[in-house]
Write a structure and sequence with these properties.
By secondary structure, the chain is of the alpha+beta class. Helices cover about 50% and strands about 15% of the residues. This is Helix-turn-helix domain-containing protein.
């Protein structure tokens, strides 16, 4: 059984601010690719664990993601349907843009 922490989807300004950071945007892209709950460690690789925790908190407080504990391990999941229901097309449009490399 999973334990879940869920917030309401924040204001459009909160959602866009959460997605404006390149590290958080990459985390969201990885969650989207995963298609379900993903262990936190799979969602970042260029920041420390404490910095990643900070980024996860910002995403969660904006209502973009939710955190759950599965088998004693913390997972993150993208709330695509909830965000799209609140702000149609916003998150899907952002995710459709290919990252510059």
């Amino acid at each position: 059984m999973a334990e879940t922490e869920r917030a309401e989807v924040g204001s459009l300004q909160d959602v866009l601010a959460a997605l404006s950071d390149p590290v958080r945007l990459e985390m969201v892209r990885r969650m989207y690719a995963e298609g379900g709950p993903a262990p936190c460690a799979q969602l970042y690789d260029e920041v420390s664990k404490s910095t990643a925790s900070h980024h996860f908190k910002i995403l969660r407080e904006a209502g973009v993601t939710e955190r759950s504990v599965i088998g004693g391990q913390t997972h993150q999941e993208l709330r695509l349907e909830d965000v799209e229901k609140t702000y149609p097309g916003v998150l899907s449009s952002i995710l459709a843009v290919r990252p510059a490399r």
